[in-house]
Design a protein that fits this description.
The structure holds two protein chains of two kinds.
Chain A (H helix, E strand, L loop, with lengths): L4 H30 L2 H8 L10 H15 L5 E5 L7 E8 L3 E8 L14 H10 L6 H23 L16 H14 L1 H14 L1 H4 L2 H6 L4 H8 L18 H11 L4 E7 L7 E6 L10 E6 L5 E6 L3 H14 L5 H28 L7 H30 L7 H22 L2 H25 L9 H23 L17
Antiparallel strand pairs in A: 1-2, 1-4, 2-3, 4-5, 5-6, 6-7
Helix pairs in contact in A: 1-4, 1-5, 1-13, 1-14, 2-4, 3-11, 5-7, 6-13, 7-12, 13-14, 14-15, 14-16, 16-17
Chain B lengths: L1 H16 L2 H7 L6 H22 L5 H31 L1
Helix pairs in contact in B: 1-3, 1-4
């Protein structure tokens, strides 16, 4: 080993972590929340609170509603309600308005009376699309995942006493405490951090490294798609009208064949003689999803193809993808994902704070001040911005036009306001104020939920309120810590070194 | 899984007690290196046993993931326990 190898790795760790740290913090927090995407969605749509839902009944109701209201659409994609989600999710295209997505009542199949909200899907989409147009958000997320993997690997090399320091946390020691917290959160959940970074980059690998696949398929993306999804049946519309056969017998056949239940109903060319109904099996307790599909001729309801995926290459990809999305997981494993995700976000946050803590003794330059303000805006601001989304869900009128857009705007306006606040306010004060603001915003979630009469005090719905209360407690504790003049990595904008 | 999680905790405590800083926090006498190594080995043996219990039977992959997550949480808890322990010794 070269004598300067470890310092080089430390340098790379510092900078690869810093450059994408703020983005990774938001991605990690959004990903953590999207572990409970369906449960947050149910909380966000209290009107759709229902009884025990049967996926086949919900799927049939959704198809019936779409037949009446989206007959001219070239395709429908439906995820029927199930044990975790009280609403069915449907996407279809409209010649005038483009793609439309709606959450449908499990019994009636209608979106009427259900507030228009993204619910948990906001966090899920933000996690890898960053509210940017395709494919830029995904490319940025995948690049951030690669940078995180690099930061993790270089961090392991840089951390010389990884075993000796494994259980070490020395509070109230300034920079040493931040380093201990960073190391403890990194090392104890290291398998999770490595897995989530690697699988995160891998799930979007075709966007950032498309050349291998393109070369193998001679630059033909259609051939690649056909190879990846051999069950997809490509039948162009004939233009001849033909009613869709009753969906119930098809769903009954799928239920008979699929052990894990029904995940998706895809209908291409509905109302046309060339209609195809494809039913996709739900993921079960296995980590690797071997997607099983049944395809039916739309007008006759006759089974025309059955595909069960067993190719080793696809199976390996499915295992890695399944590990990232945690769809296989039962409730306790989901909570472990959630806690590990919080540890990941905290590790990134402490790493960002450590960057400024390490440079406290030097005279703060423009870069130091910029990092400090961005730390404030992102580390303290992101939880408040996310809380703004949840509060907007309850406070915006249910019948508001473009309600989904207003909810998303609430997040980004809050975020922008907090970044401006962080830029103009003295950091020592801003930390306290933003931490108190975050605690109040989280505390407001269960209060507003109860005040608007939307609260349903049953698990898992009330878990959203309880988790918000826990975050409020953590925010209040952190604010108290800062107020008690704990040595947060803060410098004034005047170039003086300060201890707060 | 519950048995595996419970048996992992003493394993992690032993591994932690076998590290120099935590050993110093536990005892006023300096533990000999061989004793610390023995503590660590006992801890790892318990962790291995816990892993065996976790991955016995059906649903092995999911239990393995759950076990990794659980010992991570337990390690944080043990670290905080030792922090509190060493602080109370100092006072």
């Amino acid at each position: 080993m070269k004598p300067d190898f470890r310092p080089s790795m430390t340098w790379l760790h510092d900078w690869s972590g810093l450059v994408v740290g703020w983005l990774l913090f938001a991605i990690a927090l959004a990903g953590t929340l999207s572990v409970f995407r369906e449960e947050i969605g149910d909380w966000a749509r209290p009107e759709a609170s229902c009884c025990t839902v049967d996926s086949a009944d919900a799927g049939a109701a959704a198809v019936a509603w779409l037949s009446a209201h989206a007959a001219s659409s070239p395709s429908w994609f439906i995820q029927p309600a199930d044990a975790r989600s009280g609403t069915s999710y449907a996407v279809w295209s409209d010649a005038r308005t483009g793609y439309i997505q709606k959450w449908l009542d499990a019994r009636s199949g209608s979106p009427d009376g259900i507030r228009d909200t993204l619910g948990g899907d906001f966090f899920y989409r933000l996690h890898f699309e960053l509210q940017l147009p395709y494919p830029w958000g995904r490319i940025l997320s995948a690049s951030a995942a690669l940078a995180m993997l690099l930061a993790l690997l270089t961090g392991i090399v840089a951390h010389r006493r990884i075993f000796v320091d494994f259980f070490t946390f020395r509070p109230r020691k300034g920079q040493r405490s931040w380093l201990d917290a960073h190391n403890l959160l990194a090392v104890t959940a290291l398998p999770f951090h490595l897995m989530i970074a690697f699988t995160g980059a891998l799930t979007l690998a075709t966007l950032i490294m498309p050349w291998g696949a393109m070369s193998a398929y001679r630059g033909d993306p259609t051939a690649l798609t056909r190879a990846l999804y051999p069950a997809a049946i490509d039948r162009p519309a004939t233009g001849r009208r033909a009613a869709l056969a009753p969906i119930r017998p098809m769903l009954a056949e799928a239920e008979r064949r699929f052990a894990g239940g029904l995940y998706q109903i895809n209908i291409v060319n509905p109302g046309d003689a060339a209609a195809v109904v494809t039913l996709v099996r739900a993921e079960d307790a296995r980590i690797g999803v071997e997607a099983e599909t049944l395809s039916f001729d739309g007008p006759s309801g006759r089974l025309i193809a059955a595909h069960d995926e067993h190719r080793p290459g696809v199976a390996i990809y499915d295992v890695l993808y399944g590990l990232h999305t945690a769809r296989y997981a039962d409730t306790p494993v989901r909570w472990l994902y959630f806690v590990s995700g919080v540890a990941l976000a905290a590790m990134i946050g402490t790493g960002l704070l450590l960057w400024t803590a390490k440079r406290r003794r030097q005279r703060p330059d423009a870069a130091h001040r910029l990092v400090e303000r961005l730390n404030l805006g992102f580390v303290a601001g992101t939880p408040i911005a996310f809380a703004a989304f949840v509060l907007a869900n309850r406070l915006l009128p249910p019948g508001l036009a473009h309600r989904v857009d207003w909810e998303v705007r609430a997040v980004f306006w809050t975020w922008a306001a907090l970044l401006v606040f962080a830029a103009i306010r003295r950091p020592a004060r801003a930390w306290t104020e933003l931490l108190i603001g975050g605690a109040l915003a989280c505390l407001a979630i269960p209060l507003v939920d109860a005040a608007t009469g939307s609260a349903i005090w049953t698990m898992p719905r009330s878990a959203v309120d309880l988790v918000a209360l826990v975050f409020a407690g953590v925010g209040a504790g952190a604010a108290a810590f800062v107020i008690r003049r704990a040595p947060l990595p803060i410098a004034t904008g005047t170039g003086r070194r300060t201890t707060t | 899984m519950m048995i595996a999680a419970l048996s992992a905790l003493p394993g992690i405590l032993l591994v932690a007690a076998g590290t120099p800083r935590q050993a110093a926090a536990l005892s006023s006498h300096r533990l000999h290196q061989a004793r610390r190594r023995a503590l660590r080995l006992d801890g790892f043996a318990l962790l291995l046993l816990s892993l065996g219990v976790a991955t016995t039977g059906a649903d092995r992959a999911r239990h393995l993931v759950a076990w990794i997550g659980t010992i991570g949480l337990e390690a944080v808890a043990v670290a905080l326990l030792f922090t509190a322990g060493s602080r109370s010794r100092r006072t």
